Amino acid sequence: MAMASLNISLPQxxxxxxxxxxxxxxxxxxxxxxxxxxxxxxKRRAEERLESLLLEGLNSGTPIEINWNWSSPIGIETAIExxxxxxxxxxx
Length: 92
Hints:
Strand content: under 5%
Shape: rod-shaped
Distance between the termini: 49 Å
Radius of gyration: 25 Å
Largest sheet: none
Helix content: 40-55%
Order of helices and strands: HHH
Number of helices: 3
Number of domains: 2
Structural class: mainly alpha
């Protein structure tokens, strides 16, 4: 992966912390420490987004049983024959 440079300014206390992580073996370089923090933040934000989408889905209406055939009209027809209501169905 190609690397790009980014110069940042830190308060002395944060600089000391990062340098301490390097000296204690937590990171190999100050840059690696910051890369780890950025990756952790990216992962945390992605997990928050996923949780938000899952909650949105759970709260979106009456739950319906799903099987692997929902993507085909045949699966929809079977559900209709069984008397199931299929919300937002474009084939029904």
